[in-house]
Amino acid sequence: MTAPVLPEPNFTEPNFTEPWQARAFAMVLALHEKGLFTWPEWAATLAGQIRQDPKADYYQQWLAALEQITHAKGLVDHRKGLVDHRK
Fold first, then answer.
1. What is the pTM of this model?
2. Could you report the per-residue pLDDT of 14-60, keeping only the tens digit for each?
3. 3-state DSSP call for residue 66?
4. Where are the domains of the chain?
5. Rounded CA separation 53/51 (Å)
C-alpha cells in the first residue's frame, strides 16, 4: 500500500490572518511548555469549543478555549487579570 502524497507547504501565504491569532497560538504553546496544562487537556477544551459552535471561526474558538482553560486552571482571575505563577 502506498502512503498518500502530502501537498507541498505554501510558505508565501501567512498561517494567520491577524496578529492576535498568532499571539493566541503562541500563548497556548508557551503555557503548555511551562507545564500549566497538558496537551490532552488543551485538546479536550478546544474540542469542546468546536462542538459548541462548529461553524464559528477557528481562531475565535481557539481564543475561547484559551480563556476557558486559563480560567479553569486559575491562571487568570477575571477581576485582577493574570495570576503570577512564576517559580
1. 0.75
2. 678 899 999 999 999 999 999 999 999 999 999 999 999 889 999 99
3. helix
4. 19-77
5. 6
Q: Looking at this protein, which amino acid is placed at residue 40?
A: P
Is residue 82 packed enough to be buried (19+ CB in 10 Å), middle (13-18) or exposed (0-12)?
Answer: exposed
Contacts 24+ apart (CB under 8 A), 31-40: 31/70, 31/75, 34/85, 36/73, 36/75, 36/85, 37/69, 37/73
Residues 6+ apart with CB under 8 A from 41: 69
- Which single residue is written with the C-alpha cell 480560567? 71
Helix (H) or strand (E) holding 67, with range, is helix 58-72
Long-range contacts of 5-10 (CB under 8 A, 24+ apart): none
